[in-house]
Here is the input.
Amino acid sequence: MTEILLSDDHALLQFDRIHAWLASSYWSPGIARELVERAAAGSHALGAYRDGQQVGYARMITDHATFAWLADVWVDEGVRGQGLGRRMVSWFLDHPAFAGIRRIALVTADAHGVYAALGFHPPIRPDRFMERMAPDFAQMLRDAPA
Here is the structure.
């Protein structure tokens, strides 16, 4: 199998693929391509590539000092089960730009084991966490199966 390259070169990102993946996800169904591109532009985006084809994507939103949010971790179906998701998350955790950050947060419905193996855990004080959502997004989450 050909080696998979990880790169944060924004010019390499293949937004046709990224948009299709995210628009089919449970966390952003039907998301507009413009929104996907704008989110990538405001984040530290990472692509995974095999033979020039993008096979993975993840992004980190951060102030590069105290807090970061890991989002949109996606591995193409053809390369799932090979540790690529864990490798992309580790790339961020090991990157000097994220050294010393006190809290990295994320939300997942189905990959708890991947993240737990990398040191993530449920919030220590969940009663202190709050969120504010756009009404249509909140309704979409309320209507989605648990």
The CA atoms of residues 43 and 144 lie 27 Å apart.
